[in-house]
Amino acid sequence: PVFAGMNRSAIENFSCVIYNISLMNCTWQAGRDAPGDTQYFLYWQNSRDDDETECELYIKDENGRNTGCRFQNVRIVTEKSYFLVNGSSKDSRIQFYDEYIQLYKIEILTPPLKVAVNCTRDPVGCIITWQAPLTSHVENENCFQYEISIQNK
């Protein structure tokens, strides 16, 4: 589709990551041909039932241009969330960028909890136990797969 605005003025390299269960960072780079005074604004809609809201805590570069956003209390409640970054400049119209993102695909899980190793000599063997990582949306612990690396020293 052709968007109104100056070519290559929309943001580039947009990406988001969720960490520590409910925090999310989104970052981007200014469009390569955007005028120097271009400022960008991020809006997102977590689900169809939610209102579209603007970022409350922008990450700024050394020139004061918004290049990211920090979110708190993020909940993964729906299949896809909508992100929109538009821009403004005195000199020209700025193209917008939008994307639907499946939040569960960008979540960095915490490590498993309460990892314990119990070894015995008779018979020789060890039992390793742990609890599932904390997450905002996985209710079925059978969804997790684990890999154990055992190194003898």
Automatic annotation (TrEMBL):
<dbReference type="InterPro" id="IPR015321">
    <property type="entry name" value="TypeI_recpt_CBD"/>
</dbReference>
<dbReference type="GO" id="GO:0004896">
    <property type="term" value="F:cytokine receptor activity"/>
</dbReference>
<dbReference type="InterPro" id="IPR013783">
    <property type="entry name" value="Ig-like_fold"/>
</dbReference>
<protein>
    <submittedName>
        <fullName>CSF2R factor</fullName>
    </submittedName>
</protein>
<keyword id="KW-0675">Receptor</keyword>
<keyword id="KW-0732">Signal</keyword>
<keyword id="KW-0812">Transmembrane</keyword>
<dbReference type="InterPro" id="IPR036116">
    <property type="entry name" value="FN3_sf"/>
</dbReference>
<keyword id="KW-1133">Transmembrane helix</keyword>
<keyword id="KW-0472">Membrane</keyword>
<feature type="domain" description="Type I cytokine receptor cytokine-binding">
    <location>
        <begin position="13"/>
        <end position="106"/>
    </location>
</feature>
<dbReference type="Pfam" id="PF09240">
    <property type="entry name" value="IL6Ra-bind"/>
</dbReference>
<keyword id="KW-0325">Glycoprotein</keyword>
<dbReference type="InterPro" id="IPR003532">
    <property type="entry name" value="Short_hematopoietin_rcpt_2_CS"/>
</dbReference>
<dbReference type="GO" id="GO:0009897">
    <property type="term" value="C:external side of plasma membrane"/>
</dbReference>
